[in-house]
Write a structure and sequence with these properties.
Blueprint lengths: L7 H10 L15 H9 L8 E2 H9 L7 H4 L9 H9 L1 H6 L1 E7 L12 H9 L7 E4 L1 H4 L11 H11 L3 H4 L3 E6 L13 E6 L9 E6 L14 H10 L7 E4 L4 E3 L7 H9 L8 H21 L2 E5 L3 H10 L8 E5 L2 E2 L1 H10 L4 E3 L4 E2 L3 H9 L7 E3 L7 H12 L7 E3 L7 H10 L8 E3 L7 H12 L7 E3 L7 H16 L6 E3 L10 H48 L1 H6 L2 H12 L5 H30 L5 H5 L3 H25 L6 H48 L5
Parallel strand pairs: 2-3, 2-4, 4-7, 9-10, 10-12, 11-13, 12-14, 14-15, 15-16, 16-17, 17-18
Antiparallel strand pairs: 1-3, 5-6, 7-8
Protein name: Nlrc3 protein
Organism: Symbiodinium necroappetens
InterPro entries: Leu-rich_rpt, LRR-containing, LRR_dom_sf
């Protein structure tokens, strides 16, 4: 292997092969999938990816991993060049396949996993289907000791692979699985024999592939965190834009928790001998490669997302941020932030979007972060939700908003412990701050006093906010009324783009997928209601046609002498009167059409007016001022009128049951109407079911969050 299984002769061969022309990688693009595919297809490097199905096969047979030189004879073990070409060109196929770099320890000098412990952890992880998992496992993927003489093909391929080792851990289209643990002592069977390349005197020329007892191998018990190559691999993995690294622990699977380490910090760690290398020359090579990869990633990275960082790693992240010249978004979640780490973050923040939700803020951390944000002109959007912030913390944030240097446009302080004093501190700085556009304070403990403080600030007419979210707080109707009056007063003073929301506790938004389903249910309901109205019109027109046709027929009969002699004049007059009595439906039909026009017209005017309000930034302003009330009343009248008129038409049907065609048609229409009305009302029940599902899922999520251990 490249770093752990080499002997002295192996080390000398590697050093000699590192000529001046070969010190820089042949491939450098860590984002383009074509570059990774070309590297895997390059015969000068000759790397093999191992199928997940083959690892499963080895594990089921109670075997362990096989050396690269011997794996060529195994059937269906390695990924073929044809599959790599398809992965390069077919985007759909590329989304299904996961290329995984395995970062692990070598438990012996001759074999990384003599007991099969690491193989079992890989197979049992089940993070991705085996069919679509392609693994880079160094012992199986690149040529191992013994590779022949100094300039042999295997040695040249090994040296080329060493130059590009970072590709399998830092490329944006790869994932990293980390195995930190060693085989437990009680699971080691020293008498078990495995097949390895073994040389008793350390010279490759005298060695051969043979079965050797595990107890005869040279054990290496250095912990994972103290191994130079392992640390380098995890540093490369932490430099991806997205979180694509997982630690395969013995108890649970969790994302990796490391921050990108600046080259000077990594070099200092190596010089202090905190990291151990199998060979001295490896340390210089790893330091140079780590610096090259870090600078390449840092200079091109625009978004960085990290989670579960211990407090010391937050300090490392703060020192690394000054190298990220193009970084736009920084997300640090589920981590521990102390004063020192927040000071480093505050000094070097040059991002536009900062997400620090769901972190543990230690004493002095938020004050240190706020001090760094006072003179910061780059951060435009900050998410500080779910941090258990109180009034004292919010006062420090208010100092940031009071600063003339602050350019914050969106501030999310939802799901904290903010009370009236904190709300008053924020309300006090709103008239003076001309940059803040969105202030989110939902799910806090703000009462009527805090709501009144915001109302006084809004009434000044100097607030540049466009949205103030006070949903799910604790103020009563008095606070709501104060906010509505303040919003109206601000409207009159020219504040034309302001929205305030204050939904009470218990009225929570659905999850996006459930909300989409509810919207489609409402669309179906509106469509069926429209069909009902069209059926009503069809019913009236059908009756009208029948009445007019029969009345004309009776008049024709009265003019026919033969018919007149067959029926008495009283019979014909009665038939004609009964037919023309259907003319009374002309008036109800006209009323029905008028009602429908009122409904449709009111609905159309409602949408037109709402669109105008939306264009001016006032979707809710018209609702509070009552400007939409006439149109809403007209629409409601149209709906109630249509339903009432349906009852009247049904009663009138009893007077004309002698026309079988009309009766049957009306019966069919009525049945269809009832069915459509049932479908229209079904969305209410569906919405209720979705609400129950939503609340249940939230409760289960809350229980899982409490039960999940937080690893530092």
């Amino acid at each position: 292997m490249r770093r752990r299984a080499s002997t002295g002769a192996d080390s000398q061969a590697s050093v000699a092969a590192m000529g001046p022309r070969e010190k820089r990688p042949w491939y450098s693009d860590l984002r383009d999938p074509a570059a990774l595919a070309d590297l895997l297809l390059d015969p000068r490097i000759d790397v093999r990816l191992i199928r997940g199905t083959y690892l499963e096969k080895l594990h089921q047979a109670k075997q362990t991993v096989i050396r690269r030189q011997e794996i060529e004879t195994e059937a269906d073990a390695v990924v073929t060049p044809e599959e790599l070409l398809r992965w390069k060109t077919d985007e759909g196929f590329r989304r299904r396949v996961r290329i995984i770099g395995v970062s692990h320890v070598w438990e012996t000098m001759e074999h990384p996993d003599p007991t099969g412990h690491q193989l079992g952890m890989l197979v049992n992880a089940r993070l991705w289907p085996d069919k679509w998992s392609w693994y880079f496992f160094d012992y199986m993927s690149i040529y191992q000791f013994y590779r022949g003489y100094q300039y042999s093909r295997q040695q040249r391929c090994f040296d080329a692979a060493m130059l590009h080792m970072h590709f399998f851990y830092a490329h944006e289209h790869t994932y990293t699985y980390c195995i930190e643990s060693l085989t437990p002592p009680d699971q080691i069977d020293g008498d078990r024999k495995i097949e390895v390349f073994f040389t008793p005197d350390g010279r490759g020329e005298s060695g051969q592939v043979q079965e050797v007892q595990i107890q005869a191998l040279n054990a290496n018990t250095t912990p994972y965190s103290h191994r130079g190559w392992c640390e380098a691999e995890m540093q490369w993995s932490s430099m991806r834009d997205r979180l694509q690294t997982h630690s395969l622990g013995s108890r649970c699977l969790h994302p990796w928790n490391r921050a990108p380490m600046p080259p000077n910090v990594f070099q200092e760690k190596v010089l202090q001998k905190d990291l151990k290398f199998t060979h001295r020359n490896n340390s210089d090579q790893v330091v140079q490669l780590q610096a090259r990869v870090f600078m390449d990633k840092a200079l091109n990275c625009t978004s960085l997302s990290l989670t579960r960082l211990p407090r010391d790693q937050v300090v490392v992240l703060g020192r690394a941020l000054c190298f990220y010249k193009k970084l736009q978004t920084l997300s640090v979640t589920n981590s521990i932030l102390d004063k020192e780490g927040c000071e480093e973050l505050g000094k070097n923040l040059r991002v536009k979007m900062l997400n620090l939700t769901r972190n543990t803020m230690l004493d002095g951390s938020l004050a240190a972060l706020s001090a760094g944000l006072v003179d910061n002109r780059s951060v435009l959007h900050a998410n500080l939700s779910c941090l258990l912030l109180g009034d004292a913390h919010v006062k420090a944030i208010a100092d940031v908003l009071r600063s003339q240097s602050s350019q914050l446009q969106t501030l999310d302080l939802s799901k904290n412990e903010i009370e009236d004093d904190g709300a008053a501190a924020l309300a006090e700085v709103l008239p003076a701050n001309q940059c803040l556009r969105n202030l989110i304070l939902c799910s806090n403990r703000i009462s009527t006093v805090g709501a009144t403080a915001f109302a006084r600030a809004i009434q000044t007419g100097e607030v540049t906010l466009q949205m103030l979210d006070l949903d799910q707080n604790e103020f009563a109707e008095l606070g709501k009324s104060a906010l509505v009056v303040a919003a109206d007063e601000a409207w009159r003073k020219g504040v034309r783009r302001f929205v305030v929301t204050f939904r009470p506790h218990g009225k929570k938004e659905l999850k996006p997928k459930l909300q989409t389903l509810r919207i489609w249910m409402m669309r179906v309901a509106v469509t069926t209601q429209t069909l009902c109205y069209l059926l009503h019109v069809l019913r009236v027109l059908t009756w009208w046609r029948e009445f007019l046709a029969f009345a004309k027929y009776v008049e024709y009969l009265q003019k026919d002498p033969e018919v007149s002699s067959s029926y008495s004049s009283e019979q014909l007059d009665a038939a004609r009167a009964r037919a023309w009595s259907g003319a009374w439906l002309l008036l109800p039909a006209a009323v029905l059409l008028l009602v429908i026009l009122c409904y449709v017209g009111g609905l159309a005017l409602d949408f037109i007016f709402a669109a105008l309000l939306w264009h001016q930034g006032f979707w809710f302003r018209g609702l509070s001022l009552g400007l939409k009330k006439p149109w809403r009343t007209l629409r409601k009248f149209g709906f109630v009128g249509c339903r009432a008129f349906l009852v009247v038409l049904t009663l009138m049907l009893a007077c004309f049951r002698s026309w079988s065609f009309t009766a049957r048609l009306t019966m069919y229409i009525t049945v269809a109407d009832v069915a459509l009305q049932g479908a229209s009302r079904a969305h209410d029940l569906g919405a209720l079911i979705l609400r129950v599902i939503h609340l249940t899922s939230r409760q289960c999520k809350a229980l899982s969050d409490v039960a999940e251990p937080f690893t530092v």
